[in-house]
Amino acid sequence: MNDARLVCIRCGAAYPADRYAIQCTACGPDLPTALTVAYANDRLKDVTRERIARGPRSIWRYQHSLPVDASHAISLGEGVTPMVSLTALGREMGLANLFGKCEFANPTGSFKDRLASVAISSAARLFDARVIASSSTGNAGAAVAAYAARAGLDCIVFTAGVSSGPMISQMLAFGATVVSVPSKADRWTLISEGVDRFGWFPTSPFFGPPVGSNPFGIEGYKSLAYEICEDLDWKVPDWIVMPVCYGDAMYGVWKGFVELQTLGWVDHVPRFAAAEIYGSLVEAFRTGSDTPPLMPQPYQTAATSITSPQGTFQSLTVLRKTRGVPVKTGEAEVADTRRRAARMEGVHLETAAAASLAAASALRANGTIGSDDTVVCLLTAGGLKEMLPASDLGNSVLTVTADMDDVLKAVAATRGKDLTSKKHAAPARSDEPATRIVKGATS
């Protein structure tokens, strides 16, 4: 299946497959642009839904869409994650059809496993790489560390002091070499030198302005488009809402929907919404620019997985091609949405993951999203990725004596609850199930 080449997503200039570590040189440094994978052969010929259903229970069931044959995949069973109906939260937002694609069910707990599986498979099978390199705030580093271990490759991850403790623990457990440096820019300088001098295989961005992650890894995100449609009985949602840093997943998902349209399995591509922190894409939309600007960072966000102050051309491409919109999400709104998702739906999210739900709520409030639109939010990682204080969780451990009356008094005083009733109180909402697993690829 080694028929891959690379093309510029802006100007269409073609490059050989081994140029995965560069941006488009034809566009030049003033127009930072990513390359994307294209295939010489007709990969979609003879692809059927039945053939996909017979494939592995992982993203590799869509091997026609990936640069490496499934027989050579470095896999931990990534993908085929649950999609759940967020009934109570949707009702509060005014959305009748709100769904969450639960990417925290992946092997290392985030959507980055899709990228890591394909990137490491490509590194090992196509380029004979020996060392995997990543700059990461957490999820990407944990994912590539796991898949590098699976492949028997060395992995080095550069952090800059903002990574969450649990994610650092994951990297260390998988045997990665984790290096903390003074600044984010230092990470990129060191990886660039490693790529140039030693042939390290980079899975993440490592120069600025950023253009996105390794193009072979981004191919793994196309699987999300297939799964979402399969989950919805091959219907296309009206909206896909995603937290965005460099737009890797958003670009990959969009490519997947384009493939589905080419196959004739769907008749259109959904609109995309990008939830960001500092508003680079919002500013690019306001000014009409094709180069998202570098924005000030007046505060350090709790959504560490989407901290980039500068968006990418690939993000703008998806938004403009799909009549999509960027949304600048506030810290308080994201934190509140994270708490409500846990309390109302039993879905405990990493702060950055909750940005997609906060953006969907904002777009419904301003009328961009209709009340009957089908909205799928990518829930990129779970809350166990972070160590949040009790104050952020809106709850705390009660310390009492081993006496039931003391327990009941403490519960009543702190939680306002009476736990003595023997009769189960009816839920104060409709008779619809609070969380319904959607049948399809995730059944």
Q: How is this structure best described in words?
A:
This protein is of the alpha/beta class and 443 residues long. The chain has a domain at 83-110 and 217-385: Rossmann fold (3-Layer(aba) Sandwich), CATH 3.40.50. The protein is built from 15 helices and 14 strands. The strands form three sheets. A seven-stranded mixed sheet has the order 12-11-10-13-5-4-14, sandwiched between helices. A four-stranded parallel sheet has the order 8-7-6-9, sandwiched between helices. Helix 8 (222-231) crosses helix 9 (248-263), helix 9 runs parallel beside helix 11 and helix 12 (331-345) packs across helix 13 (351-365). It is globular and about 70 Å long. It starts with a strand and ends in a 6-residue tail after the last strand.
Write the SSE topology.
Elements: E1 4-8, E2 14-15, E3 35-39, H1 49-53, E4 83-86, H2 87-93, E5 97-102, H3 112-125, E6 131-135, H4 139-151, E7 154-159, H5 165-173, E8 177-180, H6 184-198, E9 201-202, H7 215-218, H8 222-231, E10 239-243, H9 248-263, E11 271-276, H10 280-287, H11 313-321, E12 325-328, H12 331-345, H13 351-365, E13 374-379, H14 390-393, H15 404-415, E14 435-437
Parallel strand pairs: 5-13, 6-7, 6-9, 7-8, 10-11, 10-13, 11-12
Antiparallel strand pairs: 1-2, 1-3, 4-5, 4-14
